[in-house]
Predict the 3D structure of the following.
Amino acid sequence: MRRRLSSGLELELIQRHLDELLNLLAGPRGPAATGFAPAVDVQEVTDRYLVRVDLPGVATSELVITLRQRELRIAGRKPPGSEQADKGHCHHMERGFGAFSVEVVLPGPVRPDTTTAVVRAGVLEITLPRLRERRDSLYTIPVTDEEP
């Protein structure tokens, strides 16, 4: 499953409501609808952005995190639980598994060289130090005489 998030809370709320509505209209979930879509939080702190992703049961070796300018992409694969191995009859299933991809457009530029990612208790936390935008800054450009 692939999702793209922006920094606007209103857009996330609308997306969440539309997803719920489409799930209701699609009817009951069967065994084939076992996609995994992790929950994502994006928080802005004074000097950094914090991105938290719920990834229970996902090994760090299964994660690939990339950053291109302001676009953060988190991809990976959640394996089916060990209880799925016996292939018994499942009466109800809500915990998904499989490949996933989440894209987050950050509110501003970041410093990729000092970005960190840590998994604690099934939650991936990515710390992205903010880079001050330069468009509001005033720079003086020195002028020199041309020598003949």
